[in-house]
Amino acid sequence: MIRAFETSKQAHQRHSDKAARTRDRILTLAAQAASVNGIGTLTIGGLASATGMSKSGLYVHFGSKEALQIALVDTIEKQFRKEVVGPVFAMPSGKDQLLEMMRLWIAWSQSPDRPGGCQLIAATFELDGLDGSVRDRLAKSIDAWRGAIRVLWNNGKPKGELRGLDAEQAASLAYGLYAAQHIERFLLHDQTAPERAMKLWKAAACR
Amino acid sequence: MIRAFETSKQAHQRHSDKAARTRDRILTLAAQAASVNGIGTLTIGGLASATGMSKSGLYVHFGSKEALQIALVDTIEKQFRKEVVGPVFAMPSGKDQLLEMMRLWIAWSQSPDRPGGCQLIAATFELDGLDGSVRDRLAKSIDAWRGAIRVLWNNGKPKGELRGLDAEQAASLAYGLYAAQHIERFLLHDQTAPERAMKLWKAAACR
Predict the structure, then answer these.
(1) Virtual CA dihedral for B197, B200, B204, B207, nearest 10 degrees?
(2) Of A89, B35, B68, B135, which cross-links B62 as Cys (Cβ 3.0–4.6 Å)?
(3) Average per-residue pLDDT for chain A
(4) Among B126, B178, B197, whose Cβ lies nearest the Cβ of A126?
């Protein structure tokens, strides 16, 4: 369309599309940085230095440090749904689905987009002693994924391929093995950690 | 002793004893604060505000932020040896020792001295993407405890009370269940988490 002929509504739409794309681009960069430095330490000033944008420009997009951090959790959760939740829930229920769940989850923490590992599990330990809206948003995210694991477990159970854990225990075991491989891989630089977590998950959860 | 009669060596000793006690007292306070706020974010300035001491006074004791954070890991590790490692290694090897290991470790994370939970596992996720001497000191500490779990496992193995995991798998499983209950308890406020971790450890590790 030739801009001279666009209506003011169309012009407004074009501007807000552009603003949304800019916002998405900033949040994608912020998510990478948070993989190394954490979510709770991200400030508008810090993001300004990292992106070369002005602080005032970033305030227009986010309004406050808390709003920025919450938008960041939204962005990371959206990526997680695309890379892990979606593909897993597209599979038939049962043992193979539960194994693929752990495989994709671990792969998520090893992605080149996350040079310092999974931002969500890191933020868990960063924010758990604090109060506030960012902590609450994160807890909602962790709770949702634990709930999804319980659903996968309960749906797979009637096939008789899973061990005698209840869904809550299965979610705790899965979270634990994920956390252990994260510690071993990123702090202790043990490259065998992901394979060990998969073996333990298979042995303790799936027949 | 009447001070007028003490030798200069004795006076020096008295001053350095006093300095050591002051340093210990500061580090005990710093360890409590780190349970909520983390180890990697602690600065000499922040500690000055928290203790009411002068920044220059704290510089005399620690010299730099990194030296302070390393001294803090030393202090926390010493507490961990006293509350967990010592009592566990005083027991005869076997299943009961491995169960008590997990029980004392979880109790450590729930102590009133640690209002925001275990400083060491939190620092793991805080520092794992970074370089430097504090990260290396922490990795040494985590590695030592994983090594201790492997020793407990190998010593208990001949009694036939433990499941068919190798020592490395047992250490990963133990770390994972510890991390899971920490996430559930401190982020999700689930008070049933410690008991679930104990049950999972018993079911997956001990016959």
Answers:
(1) 110
(2) B68
(3) 93
(4) B126
Closest chain A residue to B121, measured at CA: A125
- Residues B52, B43 contacting (CB under 8 angstroms): no
Are A187 and B128 inside 8 Å of each other by CB?
yes
Q: How far is CA B148 from CA A6, B101, B153, in A?
A: 71, 10, 9
Q: Which of A129, A179, A182 sits opposite B186 (nearest CB)?
A: A129
CA B107 – CA B97 distance, rounded (Å): 15
B105 against A33, higher pLDDT: B105
| Contact yes or no for A128 and B200 at CB 8 A | no
Select from B36, B126, B180 the Cβ nearest to the Cβ of A175: B180
Which of A178, A187, A190, A200 should be substituted to probe chain B, the one whose Cβ sees the most B Cβ atoms within 10 Å? Answer: A187
Instruction: Give tens-digit pLDDT for A97-149.
Output: 999 999 999 999 999 999 999 999 999 999 988 889 999 999 999 999 999 99
Q: Which pLDDT value is given to residue A183?
A: 97
Look at A197 and B176 and tell me if their CB atoms are within 8 Å: yes
Specify the amino acid at residue B114: R
Per-residue pLDDT at B161 = 94
Residue B34 in contact with residue B28, Cβ under 8 Å?
A: no
Taking CB atoms within 8 Å and a gap of at least 24, the contacts of A184-189 are: A184/B172, A184/B175, A185/A109, A185/A110, A185/A117, A186/A116, A186/A117, A186/B128, A186/B129, A187/B124, A187/B127, A187/B128, A187/B135, A187/B138, A187/B139, A187/B142, A188/B139, A188/B142, A188/B143, A188/B146
Mean pLDDT by 10 residues, chain A (207 residues): 75 84 91 91 89 90 93 97 98 97 98 95 90 95 98 96 95 98 96 97 92
**Residue B139 scores a pLDDT above 60:** yes
Residue B21: give its domain's CATH number.
1.10.357.10
| pLDDT over threshold 90, residue B12 | no
- Nearest CB among B38, B169, B187 relative to A142 is that of B187
Q: Which pair of tokens denotes residue B149?
A: 């779990």
Q: Which of B128, B190, B202 to mutate to test the interface with A (most CBs of A within 10 A)?
A: B128
Q: Which residues pair with A162 in a beta bridge?
A: A206
Complex-level ipTM:
0.91
Q: How many domains does chain B have?
A: 1
A187-196, B24-33, B99-108: segment of lowest average pLDDT = B24-33
